[in-house]
Every structure is written in C-alpha cells, then in structure tokens.
Amino acid sequence: MIEAKFFTNNKNILVVGAGRSGMAALRLLARQGCRLAVSDGGPLDRLDAEQQQWLLDKQVALEFDGHRTETFCRSHCIIVSPGVPLDLPQLAEARQSGIPVIGELELGALFTDVDIVAVTGTNGKTTVTTMIGAMLAADGKRVFVGGNIGTPLCDFVAREGKADVLVLEVSSFQLDSCAAFRPHVAVLLNISPDHLDRYASYAAYAEAKMQIFKRQRRHDFAVINGDDPEIVGRLSAIPSTIREFGRKKSCQARMAGNTALLQLPAEAVEEYSLPEEISTYPNCDNCLAAIMVARLMACRAEAVAQGLAAFRLLEHRLRTVAIIRGVTYIDDSKATNIGALQSALAGMTGPVHLIAGGRDKGGDYSRVSGDVSRRVKSLILIGEAADKMAAAWGEDVRVVRAASLEEAVRLAAGQAQSGETVLLSPACASFDMFSSYSERGRAFQEAVAALEAGPHLAARAGT
User: Fold this and answer.
1) Domains: count for the chain
2) Distance from C-alpha of 310 to C-alpha of 290, rounded to nearest angstrom
3) What is the distance between the alpha carbons of residues 117 and 187, in angstroms, rounded to a whole number?
4) Taking the model in full, what pTM does it have?
5) 84 and 157 together in one domain
6) Is the peptide bond before 426 cis (omega within 30 degrees of 0)?
7) Same-domain pairing of 29 and 51
8) How many Å apart are CA 346 and CA 355, to the nearest integer?
C-alpha cells in the first residue's frame, strides 16, 4: 500500500484531470518536489491565466486535448480526479504495468494524522458536513470542512493547515479511487439511484458508497441511516462500531415531534430542540446524523444545541424563496436525482405544483410514481428528460411542458392556489440548460422575484 514517503523528488507523478481536485493534488505534490505531469481530455484554455502560469513555473509537463498511453505508463504513480472515468484505456494499461492509481482524496489523507469525519450519501452530504463542522467549531475545536465541497483536502494539507478534526464531504466518485482511506467516523446518510450514467448498475453505485467503511477498524464508528433498506441490508460488510439514526425506536438517534433524541450506550437520553426550518423531513434526519457525529467526537451537548440554533439551510436545498398570495415557492435545485425528489415530496404538507426535468442521469422515474400521484397536483416539465418523466408520471398527474424555467414558474403560479406549494425539485442534472444547479436555482429565484415585482397575468395551460 502506498505511503506519503513514496512521493519524493525522484518520482514521476501524473495527475489526470486539471479541475479543482487535480490542481490541488499538483500543489501538494509540488511541495513534495515530485516531477509532475498533468493529462486532461479538455483544452488548456479551460484553465485561467494564473493556473496556466503556475503550471509553467512549476515545470509541470502538460498534456491537454486527450490522453496518451506513454504518458501514463512512464509514471511511478497516477492521481485521478473524481470526474475522470476509471475505465479509461490508458489507466487500464498503467494498472497492468503495476503503476498505482489513487485519487486526490486518498493522496491528501496520506499526509495527515488528524481524525477524519467523512460524510457520504446520495443526498444531504453538504448539509450534514456543514452542520457537523458548525457544531464542532462551537465547541472550540479547530475544524477543517471541505473535500467534495469548498477546499479539497490536498489544498488544506499543502498549506500545512492546522485542525483538530477534518470534516469531509465525500462522493462515490472519490471513494472509487480510495484503497486506504480510513475515517474515524464514517457517515452514510442514504442510498438511492444516482449517477447511473457512470455506474454499470444501481448495485455497483451502492457498493461504491459502502467503500467509506472498508478500511475502518472496530474502534471507529459507522453512522448509518437505520431506515434505509439499501444500507441495512449491507451492515454485515461494516467492520466498525455501528450507530443508527432514523425513525425506528431501535435507532440511537430519532425524532419525537420537533425534538431530536439521542441515547448513546451507557448514557442518559439527550434532547435537542430543532428550529422550525430544519425540523421536517428530510432535514430532521440530517440533524440526527450531525448530532450523533458531534457527540461521538466529544462535542459538548451545549455546543451541539448552539450549532443547531444557528444553522441556516444552504442555498438551493429546500429553501423557501417567497410566499406570494399564500403560495409558497421552494428552491430545491440541488435535487439532481430521484431520491432527492422523493425526500422533498415527503416533507411537503399540502398540494404541490412540481417543476422537474433537466438532463437525465439514467434513473428510473417510476420509482417515485406513488409519491408524485399522492402529493403533486400539477407537473411542469422542462429540459431533456421531460418526455421520459411524462411517460412515467403522466397517467397520474396533469402534465404541462415549458420551454424555459421562467415559463415553468409562470405556469405554476397560474395554477397554484393559496396554501399550495410551487416546488423546483428537478430530479435531474442541470447541464442541458444551465452550467450548474446553482445557476438553475438562481434562475428560479429570479423568476419568482419577477412574480413579486408587481401584478402579472397568470399563465395557464392551454392559453
């Protein structure tokens, strides 16, 4: 197994992918004095001038607009960025030659002995990671929060950052390229179909998520969703000490009304009042996971309560944008998969006018047909997946097509009545119409703001 001392000035190290994670890996490796190369399938001009100059200053060998097998096979080790397909022919050739291939996350972890809390799951990762970081910081601990969000781990290590705890959001793509990554506390929030455009099957995706526990030992902790059958069915593969959150009475962290209850072994029951904004599903589950992790990391109960009280929902994650004429408008643009849509609908208390669609990720929309038929009053579809969604849900709910998100908001506003909700929860990637889910969410907010700006003609289907 590769160790940090491997990376010295006599080693040729190739980084595949020059995005955020790849550049972070290069900065750490440059500090180690390695001889560096970078290979990227895109053009060099995707990097800004400062990044290009840094590569030149550090004498990094550049390979853009494609990959050459010779570049891969003359390396002593290859670092892959999360977005790089691991079935690249060049990577296969390198592996056959005995060249180790690891990811940026694993590289960074090799250079630190600080306790790691790692959070993964199909949905809720960023919220829970951020919440845990806030609780630990409220307890006076030095906390680094990053990984798949914000700052990559390699950048934190490269600048010799100081921390008592590393709280990392971790994606399945990152776990795919980890062999020795071992968090002290590993959190698996949920598993539902996602990224089936990358994985051969749903089972393969689920197994990728389970890799977060692979290198743990008995005295480490696995914090898991006790209500998720995909996780519960795989508990025998977890080598560490399991702690469960969920709605079952057997879960050590569970809800009682708007109060979170926590009972760790040999400890009294602790009660935490949740602010209204985060007291309903799925955010209450996120709170349960964060509370348990914080207490496992010896965070004082008072600091946990302080972190909960101060927490605000992150952008584009079930955030109420406005209430206009009694209609609530909710931005859940981060819902890029079917499981996220299912969770969003489960938390709705009245009729919903759902805006969904975008770039399909290979999911089976029929999995949520029951949720749609029970909770959705009208369905406004946008983007490339509109036909597929209409085929799955069209028999159960009224379907309207929109050419743009702005039109979708106007159509929804024209149909919604006081006490109802207009929900943007696309269940798809954004890249057919937007550069990111954030841009999509901002476009939704702007369209809602236009409704607020003054009297408008309510657009109605068929007019």
Assistant:
1) 3
2) 14
3) 8
4) 0.87
5) no
6) no
7) yes
8) 16
> Do 157 and 47 fall into the same domain?
no
End-of-domain residue from the set 310, 338, 353: 310
Q: Which two tokens stand for residue 151?
A: 């700052």
Q: Do residue 95 and residue 113 come from a single domain?
A: no
Per-residue pLDDT in tens (0 to 9) along the chain, 463 residues? 799 999 999 999 999 999 999 999 999 999 999 999 999 999 999 999 999 999 999 999 999 999 999 999 999 999 999 989 999 999 999 999 999 999 999 999 999 999 999 999 999 999 999 999 999 999 999 999 999 999 999 999 999 989 999 999 999 999 999 999 999 999 999 999 888 888 999 999 999 999 999 999 999 999 999 999 999 999 999 999 999 999 999 999 999 999 999 999 888 999 999 998 899 899 999 999 999 999 999 999 999 999 999 999 889 999 999 999 999 999 999 999 999 999 999 999 899 999 999 999 988 999 999 999 999 999 999 999 999 999 999 998 999 999 999 999 999 999 999 999 999 999 999 999 999 999 999 999 999 999 987 654 433 333 3
| Domain CATH code at residue 367 | 3.90.190.20
Which tokens belong to 296? 């496992």
Neighbours of 9 (CB within 10 A): 8
